[in-house]
Amino acid sequence: MAQLEWDQVSKSFGPVVAVREVSLIARDREFLVLLGPSGCGKTTTLRMAAGLEEPTSGRLLLGERDVTHVEPRDRDLAMVFQNYALYPHMTVYDNLAFGLKLRKTAPQDVRRAVEDTAARLGLESLLARRPRELSGGQRQRVALGRAMVRHPQAFLMDEPLSNLDATLRAETRVQLKALHNQLGTTIVYVTHDQTEAMTLATRIVVMNAGVIQQVDTPEAIYDHPATQFVATFIGTPGMNMLPALWGRVSGVLTAIIGGQRLPLPADLPRMHAAAAAGGHAATLGIRPEHLRVAAVPETGTPSLKARIRLVEPLGHETLLHLELDPDIALVARTPDRWTGGSNSPVWVSCDPHRLHVFDPVSQVAYEAV
Ligand SMILES: Nc1ncnc2c1ncn2[C@@H]1O[C@H](COP(=O)(O)OP(=O)(O)OP(=O)(O)O)[C@@H](O)[C@H]1O
Ligand SMILES: [Mg+2]
């Protein structure tokens, strides 16, 4: 078991900077998930750890050992890819045994290791089959088994579930989580699926354009996003962003959003610090589930007048697409059915303690600085 460290690692492909000064530690026994949009550098980050891609600068450490220039096969890491890359002409047994035989493991040890791995993954009855005789989920388990059988120091997984259909993906996700609990090995896992990241990760690394945006537990990433990018990328739909101006109305700090006034209570230190530091403008963030929408204004509750543009009933919840004015759209998520019509005026309110505040220029959260 070991920790894996990227120390100031960058990678360029000609003029393209794929990964920019990534410093990151996957701790011993951690399930670390790299999450971000397509092209943000997740695979490149993982492949450098595996030794399949050489960093342009920086170092990779496995435990205390500098492995930057060590051959992939001497790193003692196992990689699981999206396309399972099984040997088509070999049985499941031989696919599992291949790496061990290559390392000249004693035959009885090979058999024991293969049987043990097959039992953990529920593959015992499939050992004589060839890959084409397996379902996608079974193939994926063989690919996992092939990585597990050697007991590597850490697993590197690149979107291993993305070829499975939604049901199987959800099932395999649960199995993978159970397997991690059972084996207690370090896993570095790449995905662009935030549900996978939220459910599997000990910590999530959110990347964008080759740069790490935030590293934290799933809860902290959701509750305290460090940047506007993280806030809008995590959550479905993502956090609403409202351009605001600061004002004082009769001495009360007030956010002015699309010309409407939202007075803010005195016990919001972040908000007051942002108003003091941020000049005239701010960006306020609010998650769709933290908005309340009413057909009539509630007395005593500060609210903003909006118009319903579209109602999306999802069965267990309803998404209300709103606009404060033609330039400011937002989404509210409510567990209730919406009985009012669309295109009708509504009043939107929220607990002001649920508001996030971002610097409109740097797009960094005030709570993070
Ligand atoms: N071998 C290569 N040659 C040139 N550019 C590359 C190469 N590999 C990756 N890139 C570029 O580097 C950037 C990061 O690619 P990478 O594959 O790491 O992204 P990713 O986050 O894994 O994306 P995806 O979610 O689509 O798999 C992209 O702009 C990509 O086009
Ligand atoms: Mg990729």
Describe the structure.
The protein has 369 residues and is of the alpha+beta class. It has helices at 42-50, 92-102, 107-121, 136-148, 166-183, 194-200, 218-223, 228-233, 269-277, and strands at residues 4-13, 16-26, 31-35, 57-62, 65-66, 77-80, 154-158, 186-191, 203-208, 211-216, 240-249, 252-257, 260-263, 281-286, 291-294, 304-313, 318-325, 328-334, 345-350, 356-358. It folds into two domains: 4-233, Rossmann fold (3-Layer(aba) Sandwich); 240-368, OB fold (Dihydrolipoamide Acetyltransferase, E2P), CATH 2.40.50.140. It contains nine helices and 20 strands. Strands 6-7-8-3-9-10 form a six-stranded mixed β-sheet, sandwiched between helices. Strands 13-12-11-14-20 form a five-stranded antiparallel β-sheet. Strands 15-19-16-17-18 form a five-stranded antiparallel β-sheet, with no helix packed on it. Strand 1 and strand 2 (16-26) form a beta hairpin. Helix 2 packs across helix 3, helix 2 (92-102) runs parallel beside helix 4 and helix 3 packs across helix 4 (136-148). Residues 42-43 line the site of magnesium ion.
Cα-based radius of gyration, to the nearest Å: 25 Å
User: Could you state the order of secondary-structure elements as H and E?
Assistant: EEEHEEEHHHEHEHEEHHEEEHEEEEEEE
Structural class: alpha+beta
CATH topology of the largest domain: Rossmann fold
Taking pLDDT < 50 over at least 5 consecutive residues as the criterion, the unreliable ranges are none
Helix content: 25-40%
Number of domains: 2
**What proportion strand?**
25-35%
Biggest sheet strand order reads 6-7-8-3-9-10
